[in-house]
Specification:
The protein is mostly helical. It contains 2 helices and no strands.
Length: 164
Amino acid sequence: MELVKPGIGLLFWMTITFSIVLYLLSKFAWKPILKSLREREDSINNALNSAEDARKLMSALKSDNEKLLQEARIERDKMLKEASDMKDSIIAQAKRSADEEGRKLIANAKESIEREKLNAMNQLKTQVAELSVDMAEKILRKKMDDRSQQEAFVNDNLKSISAN
């Protein structure tokens, strides 16, 4: 039964030994252990704060990147619209220029045709006048007394002119 019931001496020496160990631990071990635990807790808190700051910074950078991306898209759309407007302007100007050039060419062609027409009419008038003078000259040379002879002569000359 001694194992179950410890003796008073044993309890006394166990209490004194425990007290000495407790005093030594509190004097030399508890402060460094508590200090290292506080340092560990502080480093964990600092790491958590740093992680939170980094997350906030990443969030801010992400929103800044989104803004920059949106601005770049707006700028790209603006440039595409300006290029499209410029293209439309150039095409419209080219069409106007082509229309104007076409009108000038048509006007020049009409003038040229009119000149050629007038020139042809003048040449025709000149030829008719020459033919009339030639006929009159031939008629006068022959001096035909009879009207039927003159008409036959004129008809023969007209046939010969038509053949030429």
